Amino acid sequence: MKYLTEFRNGEIAQRMAREIALVATRPWKIMEVCGGQTHSIIRNGIDQMLPAGIEMVHGPGCPVCVTPLELIDKALAIAAQPGVIFCSFGDMLRVPGTDADLFQIKGAGGDVRVVYSPLDAVELAAKNPDRQVVFFGVGFETTAPANAMSVHLAKRRGLKNFSLLVSHVLVPPAIEAIMSSPGNKVQAFLAAGHVCSVMGYWKYPPLAEKYGIPIVVTGFEPLDLLDGIRRAVVQLEAGKHEVENAYARVVTFDGNRAAQNLLAEVFEVTDRAWRGIGVIPKSGWRLNDAYREFDAEERFQISGIHTEESPLCHSGDVLRGAIKPAECPAFGKECSPRHPLGATMVSSEGACAAYFNYGRFLSSEELASAGAALSGAAHG
Amino acid sequence: MAESGTPDFSNWSCPLPLVGYPNIVMGHGGGGKLGNELVEHLFLPAFRNPALENLGDAAVFELGPGKLAMSTDSFVVQPLFFPGGSIGALAVNGTVNDLAVSGAEPKYLSASFILEEGFPLAQLAAVVNAMAEAAATAGVRIVTGDTKVVERGHGDGCYINTAGVGMLRPGVNVGPHRAQAGDMVLISGTIGDHGMAIMSVREGLEFESQIRSDCAALNGMIAEVLDAAGEAVHAMRDPTRGGLASTLNEIATSSNVGIEIDETSLPVRPEVQSACELLGLDPVYVANEGKAVFFVAPEAADQVLRVLRAHPLGREAACIGQVTSQHKRMLVERTSIGGNRVIPTQIGEQLPRIC
Q1: Judgement on whether residues A263 and A342 belong to the same structural domain of the protein
Q2: Of A65, A200, A379, B80, which has the most beta carbons under 10 Å away?
Q3: What pTM was computed for the model?
Q4: CA B43 – CA B113 distance, rounded (Å)
Q5: Sorting pLDDT into bands at 50, 70 and 90, what band is A360?
Q6: Structural domain contains residue A283
Q7: What is the predicted ipTM?
Q8: Which residues of chain A have a CB within 8 Å of the CB of B337?
Q9: B268 vs A69: CA distance, rounded Å
């Protein structure tokens, strides 16, 4: 419990927000890469505590959001096949494909199951030798080791009925893509703490040097985020561009070597399409030759997929940080969590869903007046 | 998985042996001899009361003058037995609580069973026993019922529907549309216990202390609140599916008011908070089965809080917020670090099959 409360201390949070306000003399735009950080910033109201000029730009770090539409359609086609048990994390079930989502496939008779770990899917395969068990392995470097472990174990146990539908994406190439995109406004990055807990942060100093940007490895609790933002602002004000670790209780420079070795055993780097952004070179992982037999795309050979994105959806601009979710013309009108047009409106880590769910279509004055009455009210 | 997740038959004593079959067969729902045996050897001894004993097509009873309240609910929870409760206890308490938060005194219940072919009779006996115990605790009588059997594979062991009637308490005027600006919002105890008890059994999560469902009949506690501050209580709800957030949003919408709550004042057990963090859930959306929310005129709030805290089911009662004329139909939370967030109604089910 201690780890839950001590990084959510209201007094310290207010003090840190004041420190940031004291340091900041100019407007700065800071991107938090990870969707988990976006969620925490909005959920806790951290963006409202910052001085007016400090703008948090929400990055592309929601794996559900950037999984390409074509792969979602493939997942739907595989999940609809008789004899298949299709396993996924819960977030993926409502992500819209071209014509349907996994919930609709399930309702129509597909055996779609929510699991909390890919290793549960391996167990399902062992228990159901007459069925094909497929795990939808999406995510950044954070979820990759568990997915790698699932195929590693499946191979060792000789399971011929387990496969992985892989769409892994990598953070450093995404940072490069954002920094080199025309019209980029991002001036500093909060690197995703959990990605760095696996991969370390040795890839970041060259990026900080090349683009002249501060990069702060940051955690997810309110005080972690405020500390990350504070360090980024201090560097920006001093004209520095260094890599700092503000999440040292979890992250080391080298990262988790055992996990990295497992990843190297199972995956190889590949070009990857990011939904809403396009293809980023060498920005993903796929199963390598030694594990190709566990690749669901190889096993099921789904063809004839014609994808069509909603023309109203601007999720690509949101993911690049070019617009805020509420600036999309469809936000809260044609597009809502009940009827999402794009993946950013689905996942709890998606910037559009976070804005919608936490009422960020209200003006900051409305939200502030909402909270003002509380100070004296609640007791007991 | 925890030991207490398995049914405990040690207290069950059927006065007459259940003859013939160890498991439910199609004939048990056929209206013939097997069905009669279930009634005679199981339901009647467990629920025994004068209105039931006639075994007519309808129960006949008298209720005093005044207004009646009626409610119905169906129960499909999986697993059937969980720490702190069972489908049987839920089926009674759920309907009792719906009547109680409407300002009624629950009196009579019906119970309908949909059983799957092959369901063990011993388990049915345990479910029925739990219902009888819950009814006795709540002071209600189960006066009529029905049993149907579906083929194996077409049900999930046991589904139960209950309906109930009660007498509206005189002088009480509560409703989801009656919350007013200035009302204080009180909750009778910790949130999220039931939903996380079910999830921890299903997901095989184990914590240092086991999470138990809060499944309980609230009519006694609510009667004490209404006795003490009847007219000052404007709205009551039991925050079941969708949790506290959905209940407060419903009342904000029905009453056309805004509601503000303070995250630091929400009572949440540490083990429930930990389980929620692990599974990525927010306790404000997790179901309760033994909690009530009260909207009370500000001058009566302290008194209601005292009454709640003096009751065994309300020891951890807390004042969690206030009704405002600002941001109508919206629930806003002051977060623990001093920010604000809007808490919307949940889209779809966060956790299916929890009641």
Answers
A1: no
A2: A65
A3: 0.81
A4: 11
A5: low
A6: yes
A7: 0.71
A8: 8-10, 13-14, 44-46, 49, 222-223
A9: 40
